[in-house]
Specification:
The complex is a heterodimer. By secondary structure, chain A is mainly beta. Chain A folds into two domains: about 1-125, Immunoglobulin-like, CATH 2.60.40; about 135-495, Neuraminidase. Chain A is built from six helices and 36 strands. In chain A, the strands form eight sheets. In chain A, strands 1, 3, 5, 6, 8, 9 and 10 form a seven-stranded mixed sheet that branches. Chain A has a five-stranded mixed sheet with strand order 14-15-16-17-35, with no helix packed on it. The longest helix of chain A is centred in the N-terminal third of the chain and has 18 residues, at about 1-20. Chain A is globular. Chain B has helices at about 10-15, 20-40, 40-50, 60-65, 70-80, 85-110, 120-130, 135-140, 145-165, 170-180, 185, 190-205, 210-230, 235-240, 250-275, 280-300, 305-320, 325-330, 340-350, 355-360, 375-385, 390-405, 410-420, 425-435, 440-450, 455-460, 465-470, 485-490, 495-510, 515-520, 530-545, 550, 555-575, 580-590, 595-600, and strands at about 5, 280, 480. Helix content of chain B is about 70%, strand content about 0%. By secondary structure, chain B is mostly helical. Classes of the chains: A mainly beta, B mainly alpha. At the A-B interface, helix 3, strand 19, helix 4, helix 5 and helix 6 of A face helix 4, helix 22, helix 24 and strand 3 of B.
């Protein structure tokens, strides 16, 4: 409802703007002055089905005119509003994209002063690769211990509409200070089935999993799995989700721009079978800390981050010495058993730490975050994404994706042509979502920021985008529905399958060092 | 209905009419409100306004409006901003209270001794606005005062409008249904209006009372179901929306009292309208005055009047203004310090470089606050870490309180300051942008925007903030956030001479003399403050430290004598343990470190 009202207002605004004297200045002088845009869409590569990339000119409070030219030389002229914002009407935008597929839209900005000035034109490169309709994420203030206002949100990439799936306002308004509730780890099975899961950590909560239209709430923190299950990865087709069962701690830093250092004290990989309601260990090794599982698209291997460094919770210095490598473990679908563990990327040999492995849908590429230490990429400026071609074991350049601030929590679109990344590049503290094109020949384009209706939305927002994922389908849950389910559905305990798997396997045996 | 007011000769001789008396009382009540709110409760009002969160952008406005009675919350929050200059806020509050009284006077048609009845509702609202006490620490929610005032005013106005319109065909019914439409915007106040209208229709035996019953039922259903299915609230939350949270019993009782008085309005109005022939005599005048005095005394007597709470509020404001001298005065006037007052005492002393000489000069044990809602730590924690130069910890607490308790404009201001001090201009820009969209801090944000990218200028024009930055630890230390300020100082590896002073005091405060000795040996201090000299003597006496250390640090002979004398008296006390001896020791040694070391 709210988004519809916003949409109508937006259309009215667009009509008003469009009906204003949108004339391309005939006389002007060229200027090389730096044009400040937010979001900075200059030179980005965009999909053919993306929502209008409205932007704001921050260079001053002057009058601006923007001229968009398609490869067919067709022109659209718009005036910026008094805040310097340019809103593209949806109809125009669709036509612009249609006429520019495989080519570029040229954008010129004119500024009115005593005389009109023309800034250097810039381009939006439009590719025929479409993008998933939705992304989902968690909005959370960038604090460290308590939980405040949290929302699980989905963003429609074709319309720019943002809608809340579930938030924790209801319990907050009832209990306020005395009670804390957390929502996290929303994840969708990417086979288009609409199966989703998230955690509601509060009264009557647990793992909230919707499978084949049926929702159940499961307690996965049992005696045999004493730590919370986090960082889910759906099996591509089967009713199974892999998790880390992790004990996380954090230290804070007295000085400097970096404020927090989270680290895993203990962590294992577990698997939850939805149909059997069964929890079992995939990797449980007292000498390693294993986290961030990721299923291979063929459903036969789990990739994960692992370190054999020892972490003593009470000795702060050990928290800085955790160096993770990327490993994998094979799964036999027929015998439902696990094979040997293999080394995939030995970052520790480079005195680095690699984490959050994500495989491209064709299984050819592995994208992961690499930083100085630990497995939590979002707090370290050194955290950059690294792309590995699994066919050749070569590392490919993804400089376009990276910045001098933390990058991580990335994901592949279902067609493998888009990569999203959660990055703090804007101010080092607030995570924002950027999306890059990934071409068939492995080239990563300059990323674009989320196309909100209001280009200032991410400037006004003080929350972080967290656990961002592509989703091919809409999540149809709402807060109201969820809290009704919470009232009606009883929490069930997952059953623990006591058989320990790979507890005796040497993590380094059979390892193949693939770094070149 | 005739409502003649007969005025006796003696009253006529005084030159008074009923209208004049009515305005006279109104003015008196207004003046009382002005003084009670704007002067007596000034610091509380200021606290309520700066701890409000009103940022005019789509995200924040949607958040405020997305609840039952959201519009009323927004309006209340806007008016709450006026409390930043307490007397202005009190003026506005007083005027709106008087408007309620005026409307009730018209609705009741109250004259003579019954005029006093019209002050009951404004008095309860005034009481409600000033009764939060320590609950304010728990919620920082000052908006409730204006929300209740506006809600009541709207309820009464809608009822008055119905009365006016019901004289016309279908007029009353239109108002009745309009009230239903208002439910999502003003919440329970719309339901109260509908209930008042329905009651009025019953009392006055109106033909279409069933229509008013329908509007009442509809409004109640809208409130409950709208709350449940549109705003995703529980039925109870919706029923009490918009209001402060349910566990503040006093406020809840007063809130229900407002409901009751509102619901009684049509009944009282009916009975007063039946009454005729008022006579204004000297006796009724005295009685009226007495009623007004009782009403005002009731407000004063039952309002929250904890002197320490008021002082804490004042100290919070003075600390924000960095008015250290005034803070010292407030502390000096306080007989028994609370945890918060002591914390602000320490901050003020530290900022005036007087901490070492005075840290242990306070009366302990500290007095417990008369508030059972929550620990009062949140109000001084951020200030304490900020002025102790642990600005990262300050930011962490600020951010956590922003999330966990409530976002406030003041917290945004401090986060912006932190970012400027820490050289994080892009982060500062984000917070300043928010503050530019506020009312109270708009100009402050504009002023500070010019410091972006110009840290030198920022420090040049804010030398006191530069002093804080310069006192930061020299190392990047890992700390556990649950550690107290003193514990955090003990976790620091490298420190400047100023930080060392804090660290030594932290060791003394924690009675960790071994650590104190370890640190003091690492650096040469020209003249040790008395408390540290005492600590050295204690370490010689109690821990077998080499007495040469006393010479090395030039421990004053008088201090040594005093410590010896203390331990001698203590020995005597331990063998007899009489109350007189205890009092004697306290009187003689209060404020010394050895007294703190043994007795605190």
């Amino acid at each position: 409802m709210k988004s519809k009202v916003i949409k109508i207002m937006f259309i009215i605004l667009s009509i008003v703007l469009f009906s204003c004297s949108n004339q391309k200045p005939e006389q002007y002088e060229e200027t090389d002055a730096d044009l400040q845009l937010y979001p900075d869409y200059r030179g980005v590569t965009i999909p053919c089905n993306v929502a209008p990339l409205n932007f704001m000119i921050k260079s001053g409070k002057q009058e601006f005119v923007v001229v968009v030219q398609s490869p067919t030389q067709r022109e659209w002229v718009y005036s910026a509003d008094e805040e310097g914002k340019i809103f593209f009407p949806e109809g125009d935008w669709t036509e612009m994209l249609k006429e520019s597929i495989g080519d570029s839209l040229q954008i010129e900005v004119y500024e009115k002063g005593e005389m009109w000035k023309r800034y250097p034109e810039f381009y939006l490169h439009v590719v025929s690769d479409s993008i998933d309709k939705y992304i989902t994420y968690r909005l959370i203030e960038p604090a460290y211990r308590p939980t405040g206002h949290i929302s699980l949100v989905q963003f429609h990439l074709e319309t720019g509409e943002e809608s809340t799936i579930v938030n924790n306002e209801k319990p907050l308004r009832e209990t306020y200070f005395s009670g804390q509730t957390c929502l996290n780890c929303h994840s969708t099975q990417k086979n288009g089935s609409g199966n989703t899961m998230f955690f509601y950590r509060g009264k009557g909560g647990g793992l909230v999993v919707t499978y084949n239209g049926e929702t159940k709430i499961v307690n996965t923190k049992l005696g045999d799995v004493p730590y919370g299950t986090v960082y889910p990865s759906w099996h591509p087709t089967q009713p199974m989700i892999a998790f880390s069962s992790t004990l996380i701690r954090q230290y804070f830093l007295t000085t400097g721009n970096r404020k927090i250092h989270p680290f895993n004290v203990k962590s294992d990989i577990v698997l939850y079978n939805i149909e059997k309601n069964e929890l079992s260990y995939v990797v449980r090794d007292s000498t390693t800390i294993d986290t961030y599982p990721c299923w291979h698209p063929n459903g036969k291997t789990i990739y994960y981050a692992s370190t054999d460094s020892v972490c003593n919770e009470k000795e702060a210095s050990t928290a800085f010495k955790l160096k993770y490598d990327i490993k994998r473990i094979h799964y036999n679908e027929d015998s439902l058993s696990w094979g040997n563990i293999e080394m995939v990327f030995c970052a520790s040999k480079l005195n680095k730490s690699a984490t959050q492995p994500k495989l491209s849908p064709d299984g050819n590429y592995l994208l992961f975050a690499m930083m100085d230490n630990s497995s939590h990429s979002y707090t370290q400026d050194s955290s950059d994404l690294v792309l590995m071609d699994l066919r050749t074991n070569e590392l490919l350049s993804v400089d376009n994706l990276n910045s001098d601030k933390p990058e991580g929590y990335h994901d592949w679109s279902t067609n493998g042509r888009w990569i999203l990344v959660s990055t703090r590049r804007e101010n080092g503290n607030h995570a924002r979502v950027y999306i890059s094109h990934f071409s068939e020949d492995g080239i990563v384009g300059k990323p674009f920021a989320l196309p909100h209706h209001d280009p200032e939305r991410d400037l006004d927002r003080l929350q972080n985008y967290n656990m961002v994922e592509f989703s091919p389908t809409e999540t149809k849950l709402t807060s109201s529905k969820f809290y009704s389910i919470l009232d009606d559905v009883e929490v069930i305990n997952a059953e623990y399958n006591g058989e320990l798997i790979n507890s005796s396997v040497d993590a380094h045996s059979g390892a193949s060092v693939v770094y070149r | 209905m005739a409502k003649a007011v007969k005025t006796t000769k003696e009253i006529k001789e005084l030159g008074l009419s009923n209208t004049m008396i009515s305005w006279l009382y109104r003015s008196l009540f207004f003046l009382f409100t002005l003084l009670f709110l704007g002067v007596y409760n000034a610091d509380e009002l200021h606290f309520m306004s700066v701890n409000s969160h009103l940022i005019f952008n789509e995200i924040n406005l949607t958040f405020i409006l997305n609840r039952t009675g959201g519009l009323l919350v927004l309006l209340g929050r806007i008016l709450n901003q006026s409390f930043v200059i307490p007397i202005v806020g009190a003026l506005l509050f007083g005027l709106l209270l008087i408007l309620i009284q005026f409307l009730l006077e018209k609705l009741y048609n109250a004259k003579g001794v019954f005029l006093g009845l019209t002050y009951i509702l404004p008095a309860i609202i005034l009481l409600y606005a000033t009764s939060a006490g320590y609950a304010l620490y728990a919620t920082l929610d000052g908006d409730f005062a204006f929300v209740a005032l506006l809600g009541t005013l709207i309820s009464v106005s809608l009822f008055a409008l119905y009365r006016y319109c019901s004289k016309k065909k279908w007029g009353g019914e239109i108002v009745g249904f309009a009230v239903v439409v208002l439910v999502p915007f003003i919440g329970v106040y719309a339901v109260l209006s509908a209930a008042m209208i329905f009651l009025d229709s019953i009392i006055n035996k109106q033909n279409r009372w069933h229509l008013y019953l329908l509007t009442f039922v509809l409004s109640l259903l809208f409130l409950l179901l709208g709350g449940r299915y549109i705003f995703c609230e529980s039925y109870l939350t919706a029923l009490f929306s918009p209001s402060i949270f349910s566990y503040f019993v006093i406020l809840r009782v007063l809130f229900v009292l407002i409901w009751i008085v509102l619901l009684l309005t049509p009944i009282v109005s009916y009975f007063l309208r039946q009454k005729r022939n008022y006579q204004l005599t000297k006796q009724t005048l005295v009685l009226q005055s007495l009623i007004l005095i009782v009403v005002m005394s009731f407000v004063y007597a039952f309002s929250y009047r904890d002197e320490n709470f008021r002082k804490e509020m004042k100290l919070v404001r003075l600390c924000d203004e960095r008015n250290w001298e005034e803070m010292d005065k407030v502390v000096a006037e306080t007989d028994s310090l609370t945890k918060s007052i002591n914390a602000y005492r320490v901050i003020s002393l530290a900022r005036q470089n007087k901490l070492s000489d005075n840290l242990f000069k306070f009366k302990f044990p500290l007095k417990a606050s008369d508030g059972h809602y929550l620990s009062e730590e949140p109000i001084y924690y951020e200030d304490m870490f900020f002025h102790a130069s642990l600005i990262n910890s300050h930011y962490l607490f600020n951010l956590e309180m922003y999330m966990q308790i409530k976002p406030t404009n003041k917290r945004l201001k401090y986060m912006a300051l932190y970012a400027l001090m820490n050289g994080e201009d892009l982060l500062a820009e984000r917070f300043l942008r928010q503050l530019k969209q506020s009312i109270i801090y708009h100009s402050w944000a504009e002023k500070h925007e010019r410091y972006l990218g110009k840290q030198e200028l920022f420090f040049k024009e804010n030398p006191d903030l530069e002093a804080i930055v310069k006192k930061q630890p020299l190392s990047v230390d890992l700390i556990r956030v649950e550690a107290s300020l003193a514990e955090q100082f003990l976790m620091i590896e490298k420190f400047s001479i100023q930080t060392l002073e804090y660290r030594l005091l932290a060791s003394l405060y924690q009675k960790q003399l071994k650590r104190f000795l370890g640190d003091i040996k690492r650096i040469k201090i020209p003249r040790l403050p008395e408390c540290m000299q005492e600590a050295l003597i204690i370490s010689v006496l109690e821990m077998g430290e080499n007495p040469a250390i006393l010479r090395a640090y030039q421990v004053d002979r008088n201090v040594a004598n005093q410590v010896n004398s203390f331990f001698h008296d203590l020995k005597t006390f331990c063998s007899n343990k009489t109350k007189e001896q205890a009092m004697g020791i306290m009187k003689k040694y209060k404020g010394t470190y050895c007294y703190y070391y043994v007795f605190y």
